[in-house]
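Hey,
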Amino acid sequence: MPESPSSQPCPLFVGDNLALDFINTQYGVGASYRECFVDDASVVAWLKLAQVLPDDFHGAPRGLLKLALELRASAQSMLNAAKSDGEAAVDVVNLVLEAGRVAKELEWDGASKSFRVVTQRRHDDAASLLEPVAQGLVGLLTDTQLELVRQCEAHDCTLFFHDLTKSRRRRWCSMAACGNRMKVAAFRARKKAE
C-alpha cells in the first residue's frame, strides 16, 4: 500500500477477481485504514466501477450498505475458511443468490438470425444489485485454485489478489504500489548493512 493513502483512489481494483475486489473495499491498517462503503451511494458507485451496474443506473435501494457489509464479511470469512480447510456460514451469500436471482429469457435476435439468452435483474433491490458479487464469490470458492489467491506480502497491506501470472509467483497487490515500495525498502536495508 502506498505510504500516502490519500494519493490512492478508493476503491482499488487489484484482485483480478470481482469477489476479491469486493473484499478489498476495506483495506489498510492503522492510520492507513480505508473503508470504501460508507453509504448506499458508495456501494452503487463501486458496483458501477466494477462494471456490475450500468453507468446510467440511478438511485440506491434501501439497505444496500447493510447487505453489502454483511456480504463482504461473509465473503472474507468464507475465503479464510476455504483457504484453511475450515467452515464458515453461507447464509448471507445464499440469501443474496436466492433473493437476487436474475431472470433469463430466450429471445430471437433478428440481426444475427439466431436465438440468444437475455439476462436481466428481476428487481432493483439490494440483493439484486449484489447478486453478481455473490455469483463471483461462488466461482472463486468453487472454480479457482485457492492456493493462487493470496494476500499482498507488504507488511502493512491487507489486499487480496488472484495470481494469474505465468510463473505463479506474484507477491504484491500491485507492483506500482507495494512491490516498488517493498523493493526500495529492501535495497535500503541492504545498503545500510554494508
